[in-house]
């Protein structure tokens, strides 16, 4: 008998995030976003985003890390706290993905947004409104 699934649409479930130090990287993003690091699952250290998606940190200590881009939709009332946590740990945020406007935010699509690097150089983005798709 085939397995019955309650999933009715395609959804992202998890993605691997390569890191030089998975513990450091997972703890960094969890602290900045106000989340928790989960228990290790094999070689992965998950950070649950609260929407059914996990970032599964995978350590590649001896390999070069190719920086990726990860965008997080955050509630408007939490945006200032995320910026404050970045500033508290000395991480510069930028209004743009090229990191040419330090200490500033953007106001795209009627919301607020900012970019910052994680310990591996991944270009992280926080935004309060999703991009408008045409």
Outline the structure in words.
The protein is an alpha/beta fold. The protein has helices at residues 22-33, 76-88; strands spanning 14-19, 44-48, 54-59, 69-73, 113-117, 123-127. Strands 1-3-2 form a three-stranded mixed beta sheet, with helices on one face. A three-stranded mixed beta sheet has the order 4-6-5. A hairpin with a 5-residue loop joins β2 and β3 (54-59). It starts with 13 loop residues before the first strand and ends in a 7-residue tail after the last strand.
SS content category: alpha/beta
Outline, from the CA principal axes? globular
Number of helices: 2
Number of strand elements: 6
Beta content? 15-25%
Approximately how much helix is present in the residues? 10-25%
Strands of the widest sheet, in order across it, are 1-3-2
Q: What's the alpha carbon Rg, rounded to whole Å? A: 16 Å
List low-pLDDT spans: none
Average predicted confidence as pLDDT: 95
Q: What is the subunit organization of this protein?
A: single chain
Outline the biggest β-sheet: 3 strands, mixed
Series of H and E elements: EHEEEHEE
End-to-end separation in angstroms reads 42 Å
Short account of what is shown:
The protein has 134 residues and is α/β, with parallel strands linked by helices. It has helices at 22-33, 76-88, and strands at residues 14-19, 44-48, 54-59, 69-73, 113-117, 123-127.
């Amino acid at each position: 008998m085939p397995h019955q699934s309650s999933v009715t649409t395609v959804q992202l479930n998890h993605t691997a995030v390569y890191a030089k130090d998975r513990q450091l990287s997972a703890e960094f993003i969890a602290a900045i976003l106000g989340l928790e690091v989960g228990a290790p699952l094999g070689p992965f250290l998950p950070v649950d985003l609260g929407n059914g998606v996990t970032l599964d940190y995978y350590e590649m200590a001896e390999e070069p890390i190719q920086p990726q881009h990860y965008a997080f939709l955050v509630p408007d009332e939490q945006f200032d706290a995320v910026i404050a946590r970045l500033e508290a740990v000395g991480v510069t945020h930028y209004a743009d993905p090229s990191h040419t406007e330090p200490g500033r935010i953007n106001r795209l699509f009627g919301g607020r947004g900012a970019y910052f690097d994680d310990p591996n150089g991944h270009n992280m983005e926080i935004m309060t409104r999703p991009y408008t798709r045409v």
